[in-house]
């Protein structure tokens, strides 16, 4: 393995929600200027790669884009996801020991089904990277650690029923911040219980609190799970100057987080203090990944209170850690019928609001409780007052029964007109079809 850190910058000049929206190109331009000024790209430990585009196939491995991929995705989204894949390839080929995709648009609020933009996200860059690496290289166990201040609800949704992907989200308590989810009881589905770990942090949590949960919860769980790849969904809006949140983390804290976590691939998510945080946070992360000293980085406005934690917050984190570690250690002893019932299929209904596009999705999700694989997953999905769609997802390492059941369900659904559209996501055979493909 080369002792190098790979970087890709993609500011997406031609994509924005609006000219003054917080998620805009300046998020990366200030960082780029700072890194060049400080000479980071001249370090022999750092290699810069060119941005690349992903394919429609890569997106279909992850998402049901309704009505089509072209209706949901722009070229900027293709490049953001493709750049994460490019660095994944560089890591797999041992060209680098780790990497950081400094790209936009972000993606961790994009769910398994996507109709458009929610939480500034259309498609999920990390999930697309995961499915690409699993399909091409056969990786089995992957961990995604989401350090964005907002709960990574899209990534959670995509892998909620997958026992081979450990998803840990470290975020400001959802009772105080968008998207209002990410609580302790969201632990994964019946085939993947405790493979989703949420750590809701009290507003005001800073470096000391992040350190505590890393040392006493996240790192022990990772050591137990033993992933082949660790991906950091690297949101930077926990910074004390971020305008959209209420946390107290410093650039140094972000550097130390990445030094301890030691991720293989980082993919940028949120972070909206474009002048007072992002250039410093990104520089600290890059230096930490490259094994260089980041202790001298001090952003404007740094004060002593950013470096200490309240006793109330520390007590909460200690109590929470004890409870969550108990769940993790005893996950195989818990009676799941008390949570998911005794039927062969577990079904739940939910509403998903697309805050940017002002859409409300009604969704019924069903997972087949399978003892051999992640299980066949189906959704009945529709927008308010619109026709219903059926989405069928066969897992990548599907058993024969789930593979046959998924294909049969798709074939039968295509024969009638009950659903407006029927989608088949056959990850096992890398085949993706709609009712229109079958019926012409």
The CATH homologous superfamily of the largest domain is named Histone deacetylase domain
CATH architectural type of the largest domain: 3-Layer(aba) Sandwich
Mean pLDDT: 94
Oligomer: single chain
CATH class of the largest domain: Alpha Beta
Gyration radius from CA atoms, angstroms: 21 Å
Count of structural domains: 2
**What's the overall geometry?**
globular
Beta-strand content estimate: 15-25%
Could you give the count of β-strands? 16
- The strand line-up of the biggest sheet is 2-1-4-10-9-6-7-8
CATH topology of the largest domain: Arginase, Chain A
| Poorly predicted tracts of residues | none
Q: How does the helix and strand content classify structurally?
A: alpha/beta
Helix content, binned percent:
25-40%
Largest sheet: 8 strands, parallel
**Tally of alpha and pi helices:** 13
Describe what you observe in this structure.
With 440 residues, this protein is an alpha/beta fold. The chain folds into two domains: 5-329, Arginase, Chain A; 339-439, no CATH class. The protein has helices at 26-38, 56-60, 69-72, 75-92, 125-137, 153-159, 207-225, 251-261, 278-289, 311-329, 337-340, 400-414, 435-439, and strands at residues 5-10, 46-48, 64-65, 98-103, 113-114, 142-146, 165-172, 196-201, 229-234, 265-268, 345-354, 359-368, 377-383, 389-394, 421-426, 431-434. The strands form three sheets. It has an eight-stranded parallel sheet with strand order 2-1-4-10-9-6-7-8, with helices on both faces. Helix 8 (251-261) links the parallel strand 9 and strand 10. Helix 4 (75-92) packs across helix 5 (125-137) and helix 7 runs parallel beside helix 10. The model has no long low-confidence stretch (mean pLDDT 94).
